[in-house]
Structure formats: C-alpha cells, structure tokens
Design a protein that fits this description.
single chain; alpha+beta; 11-stranded mixed sheet; 380 residues
Length: 380
C-alpha cells in the first residue's frame, strides 16, 4: 500500500515548515489512533498537546487554500458521470456545554435533540468510490453574528456552485430537506442535473390539476405500476411529467418498496428530476446511490474521529473536522490499488507504524521504553 506521506507531500506549499509537520502528524494520527484526540496525537509524535491545539485554533494557515489544494488532488480520481451527494450529519458532543457555538440539533436516529455540531457534508460518488468533497458546520442564528449566519440551504448551494467547473460531476443528489427553488436553482446555475425526493404535502401540478403529491398518488391505478429490481429488492414505480411552482417542469417518479418481512408494499415515496426524458428506473437508481454519504458519516465517526475532538474554540473545531474529511479521502486514494476498506486501511497504517517504531528501537535500544509508553498512551 502506498505511503500516506506520498499523498500528504503536495500540501507543503500551503504551510510553513512547522505547520506542515503538525499537519502531517495529525493526518497520520487520525489514521492510527482508535479513539483519536489531540492528547493522544501528542503522545504518538512526542509533541506537546498545546502546540497541536495552537496549530488548529490559532495558527495562521488558510483552510480555503488547503481545501483548494485538496480539490486539485481529487480531480484525477473523479471519473465521468460522477455524482455530488450532500446531506447533513451530527457530530455529537454530549458533555461539551462550554464549547463555542455548540447547540442542540434534532437527531432522527434518536428522535430527540442532542448537543453537538450540525454539519452539511458532501461527497463525490465516482464509480464505486466515495470521496468526501466538502464539510461545513451549520451554526444557529443565536450562535453567530447575523452577517455570518448561513442556512443549510445556503451552505448546500455554495457547495453545488463550487463544482461548476468540475465537468465530470454531472448530477446532484439530495433529500427532501433541500428540494427547494434555492438549491435546485444552484444546480441549474452550476449546470448539474438533479435527483431529489419530495415531501408528501408538496404541491404539484399534473394535467392542470394542482394538489399535494400524495393526493396524486391515490389516483394511480394498480395496472399502471411497473415493477423493477435493485440490489435484490422489489420496487414498484410510476412516472409522469409535472410542474412545481418555483422549480418548473420535472420528471416525477412515484415509488414503493416491497417489505419482505411484512409481505406488503411500503408507503409511496416521491422523486423529481430535471432529466425529463430519462428512464424512471435510472432516476431511482441514481437516487439510491445516496447511501454512499451515510457510509462516509459512519466510517468517519467509527475510524477517523469525526466525534473525537476535545477543543473549545469553533475555529479549531472547524479545522479539525476539515482534516478528518481530508484524511478520509487520502485513505480512499491510498486503498484504491488494494481495494481495502477504510477500517482495514487504518489497520495497515498502524502496522506500518509498528514497523517504523521497531526499526527506531533497533537503532536506539535505550529509547524502547519511552516509545512503548507513548504508544500505550496513544491507544495504538
């Protein structure tokens, strides 16, 4: 497996020499520590915790410049007909009430509000690979000055527009939260096709009749449904042209999935796209690839510390979260030739660290106990 250092090396130009050392140490540490934290990073590289914290919270390196360099690095991995997928996720901080701009956000998995950061994330699905593209924390209005406040729709629109010159990214896929004229308008401006889901109470005009989309679904006769297969799942679909105020003409697809356990069809879901002539099965298949972003959220939390930080200033937290995203992508790039999972790639990097420490001990036997102690403290 290609060394992490080979992927990190190109970032030299956007850091000073001391900054690059800290940057390199944090990226390496994120791939190795099972429960990442700044304190463990300091043990792993024999650096002071305060110096690493200052690199994140006070150092003058420009995150936008690093992100631009990352997107340049990413370009060669983006194949034709790739998709931009975006959604929001929670980075939970249940005991962090004194952390700057932390707030309560609704968690659908727990059906209640939890303390933490809400993050608008995006990934690029290129072939079978998922590469994180952008990660932007969302702050409530009361947590920031009104001039710097941005809604989730504004953050999503900025992400879409930033891909305007990425010709290999042809589609944008997102859920019903973002299916509005602002986000879809950004897709049109960026020249991207879109596939999104509608809420059941959205007003839609079909054959000059304007009503809630779920009311239109009640008019579909059983003989008009068509069945398809996707990943061994049975899905029924019906499609038609429609008009939505503020969005325009759309291809509307009604869909139900067969519940094998209950032996019945689920409630109807509603999808729209500007791909007016596209086969409705392909529209559904495009949307179903959105699951890739959930895999990124899960693996980044389990393996790379998306919830493993102990910083108080939001400036440092934003940079830490960005480095988590960057590290995840580097791991994907690193594992392309080996086809390893993210978790397995982390294990391989840990094995390389053991080999490095072993060679260092052979050269300096007197340091063996200090090195072993640091590895133990770092939880490696």
């Amino acid at each position: 497996m290609e060394s992490l250092s080979n992927f990190i090396e190109q970032y030299h130009s956007v850091f000073t020499k001391p900054q690059f050392i800290h940057f390199s140490h944090i990226v390496h540490s994120l791939t190795i520590c099972e429960e990442p934290s700044i304190q463990k990073f300091s043990f792993l590289h024999s650096k002071s915790r305060s110096s690493l914290s200052r690199f994140l919270s006070k150092s003058t390196w420009n995150q936008d410049h690093v992100e631009l360099m990352y997107h340049i690095q990413l370009e060669k991995y983006i194949q034709e007909d790739s998709s931009l997928i975006f959604d929001d996720s929670l980075s939970k901080r249940p005991y962090a009430k004194k952390v700057e701009k932390v707030n309560y956000h609704f968690d659908h998995t727990q059906n209640k509000s939890v303390l933490g950061y809400s993050i608008v994330t995006s990934v690029i699905k290129s072939g079978e690979k998922i590469f994180p593209y952008s990660l932007k924390p969302y702050y409530r209005l009361e947590d920031c000055q009104s001039s710097s406040f941005k809604t989730k729709n504004q953050l999503a629109s900025e992400i879409i527009l930033s891909t305007k010159n990425q010709k290999n990214i042809t589609d944008a896929l997102f859920d019903s939260w973002y299916s509005n004229d602002e986000v879809i308008g950004a897709c049109k401006e960026a020249g991207k096709n879109y596939v999104t889901r509608l809420k059941s109470n959205r007003n839609v005009t079909i054959n000059h009749k304007k009503k809630w989309v779920r009311e239109h679904a009640e008019m579909i006769q059983e003989k008009d449904w068509q069945e398809m297969r996707y990943n061994q799942e049975r899905i029924k679909k019906f499609s038609t042209s429609a008009f939505i105020s503020g969005i325009g003409s759309v291809h509307l697809v009604f869909s139900q999935m067969y519940n094998k356990k209950e032996k019945n069809w689920t409630e109807t879901h509603y999808f729209i796209s500007n791909l007016l002539e596209e086969n409705p099965q392909l529209i559904l298949e495009k949307y179903l690839t959105r699951v890739g972003i959930e895999g990124f959220h899960r693996e980044a939390k389990q393996n790379i510390g998306l919830e493993g930080y102990f910083l108080r200033k939001c400036r440092g937290i934003e940079k830490y979260l960005f480095l988590v995203m960057l590290t995840y992508s580097i791991l994907v790039m690193q594992s392309i030739s080996t086809k390893l999972s993210i978790g397995r790639a982390c294990q391989e990097n840990k094995a390389l660290l053991y080999e490095q420490v072993y060679q260092e001990i052979l050269q300096n036997p007197d340091e063996r106990w200090s090195k072993f102690h640091n590895l133990a403290k770092a939880g490696v």
